[in-house]
Amino acid sequence: MFYMIGKTIDGYKIIKAIGSGTFGHTFKAIKGNKIFAIKILKPEAMSNEIKSGGFKRFEREVRSLQKVNSEYVVKYINSGIWLDSEIEHYFIVMEYIDGVDFNKYLKKHRTEFIKNENLMKKIFSEILNGLYDMYKQKIIHRDLKPANIFITHNN
């Protein structure tokens, strides 16, 4: 994953690894003077996905991100295929959220979070607002988990 640092994909220069999952890696990238998040699918995951007909998952994620319009859901910017050493890398560019995933947040602030009913209500209310906005647009979040929920530094 770290071999991607410094590479440029469609004008987005990768500057930092910020996460990894089953199907891909997420990086912090810069284009011009703006910061973005770029999710790059693992080539081996994509070849397995294509063989099993699962490439539709990538397409579905792109379509969903393009369609959703909510202040509680990360914004889609761009997507495509990037060729590096004759290997195709599928990528999705999204707005960058300056914060931490909910899983890490809970590990660090669990006691404070449990004791602060107002903070709990605020965070869960915003999660539900995002899900409701997606529901209104007939989009189902297929991978909702604490690691996929971001808490900004100002909560």
TrEMBL record:
The UniProt entry, under InterPro entries, shows: Kinase-like_dom_sf, Prot_kinase_dom, Protein_kinase_ATP_BS, Ser/Thr_kinase_AS, Ser_Thr_kinase
Tell me the GO molecular function terms. ATP binding; protein serine/threonine kinase activity
Q: Which residues form the signal peptide?
A: none
Which parts of the sequence belong to the Protein kinase domain? Answer: 12-155
Q: Which UniProt keywords apply?
A: ATP-binding, Nucleotide-binding
Asked if the record carries the keyword ATP-binding, the reply is yes
One GO CC term, this protein? cytoplasm
Pfam families linked = Pkinase (PF00069)
PANTHER family recorded: MITOGEN-ACTIVATED KINASE KINASE KINASE
Protein name, per record: Protein kinase domain-containing protein
